[in-house]
Design a protein that fits this description.
This protein has 389 residues and is α/β, with parallel strands linked by helices. It has 13 helices and 12 strands. β8, α9 and β9 form a beta-alpha-beta unit. α4 packs parallel to α5, α6 packs parallel to α7 and α8 packs parallel to α9.
Length: 389
């Protein structure tokens, strides 16, 4: 009994320390933002939201800085669009500002060991910061610490790392998933059979969003999740997996909730199956949004969860602010999902839009981490484009 008591007291002390660290990190943020996006009931339990140890970080070198992008995957339209925005928009802009030397890009193709090796090589090549995307939340932690020991901070976008010194940025995926699931449940009048198509299981963004989707669907007791499959955030993969599932499940199907970038694959699989009146969640792929524009009954609204250009621009701004000594207050900078109606899409896309378009809709900085919004997350906020060393 005494031993149990000591363990209980130690656990309580640890919980108090964690709670205190979280409170310190969140206390200076807008209370409405904290309630919406950092509420424990609507937050991935593993999402790091404590006070950032980088609040006093000083870059090891003056600008122009050399940045490493340790990409974990290049095999879908989202990754291609994020990369295009980096190369065509971000790099030229920041080089012109005199704050960027170069970006060294590596690809690990979902192999954690390869990504770890590449990150270490980037540190050895003299980068000043590393960006990663959508990676395993724990596998890179020792490498993040290795980089930090060399004065190189790591910034994770579209998913989090649990390393203490990582700075993470994304939508709150559990909130976004809940919004998607709840809207599908309402779309079906609270009753029906729903297939859930996840992203890449094991990655934080996919798992968080999937948790939220299923919680949103569960708000209607008449909704039954009849299957859960992995679409791997890739249209071709999702199309094949949904086709296989449909072939072995001939029963009634009322809706499919799918994580982008896989909605076009789901739409094609349903069309080829000949099934009628299946509601399909739509995200940010322009091809899927075009299909929705031409078929208003497909769904009532689209929830933007990860516009690729906006996502990489968000983490880039956070990284530049940190290198400039602005001092991030919290470990994770979270933003709200953006909901679009069919009327919005009618205005955004032309009547002759391409249903096979591989590009994505970006909602813009004002809706995805504006300067005013980001200011609250830094101890010494300033416009990062105006920085003078």
């Amino acid at each position: 009994m005494v031993k149990f008591g000591k363990l209980a007291m130690a656990a309580s002390a640890l919980a108090l320390c964690v709670s205190t660290a979280q409170a310190e990190g969140l206390a200076s943020l807008n209370p409405d933002v904290v309630e919406r996006l950092y509420n424990p009931e609507m937050l991935d339990p593993a999402q790091p939201v404590g006070a950032s140890p980088l609040i006093d970080f000083v870059a090891k070198n003056p600008p122009p800085w050399k940045i490493g992008y340790a990409s974990s995957y290049a095999g879908n339209t989202w990754r291609a669009n994020a990369m295009a925005h980096l190369q065509k928009e971000i790099i030229p802009k920041w080089q012109e500002l005199g704050l960027l030397d170069e970006v060294i890009i590596t690809q690990s193709n979902l192999n954690d060991s390869t990504q770890i090796q590449q990150m270490r090589q980037l540190v050895d090549q003299g980068v000043d910061a590393i960006i990663v995307c959508c990676s395993n939340p724990t596998a890179l932690n020792q490498t993040v610490q290795y980089a930090m020991d060399q004065g190189v901070p790591t910034f994770s976008f579209t998913g989090y790392l649990t390393a203490e010194t990582s700075v993470n940025s994304s939508v709150n995926y559990q909130v976004a998933g809940f919004e998607i699931g709840k809207r599908m449940a309402e779309e079906l009048g609270g009753e029906g059979n729903v297939l859930v198509v996840e992203g890449i299981p094991g990655t934080s963004a996919s798992d968080s969003q999937d948790r939220g989707v299923k919680a949103g669907l569960a708000t209607a007791p008449g909704i039954k999740v009849v299957g859960s499959i992995a679409g791997m955030w890739t249209d071709q993969v999702a199309q094949g997996e949904v086709q296989k599932w449909l072939a072995t499940h001939p029963g009634k199907l009322d809706g499919i909730v799918v994580q982008s970038a896989a909605e076009m694959g789901v739409i094609r699989a349903i069309a080829q199956s000949g099934r009628q009146d299946v509601k399909i969640a739509v995200g940010g792929e322009l091809g899927a949004l075009c299909t929705w524009r031409k078929n208003p009954d497909l769904i009532a609204s689209a929830v933007q969860t990860w516009p690729p250009g906006d996502d990489i621009a968000l983490t880039w701004d956070i990284m530049m602010r940190t290198l400039q000594g602005q001092g991030p207050k919290v470990q994770s900078v979270l933003v709200d999902p953006v909901v679009l109606s069919h009327a919005d899409i009618m205005e955004m896309l032309p009547e002759d839009c391409d249903e096979n378009a591989p590009n994505w809709l970006n909602v813009g900085k004002d809706a995805w981490g504006s300067q005013a919004y980001l200011d609250q997350f830094f101890a010494n906020p300033a416009d990062p484009t105006k920085y003078k060393p």
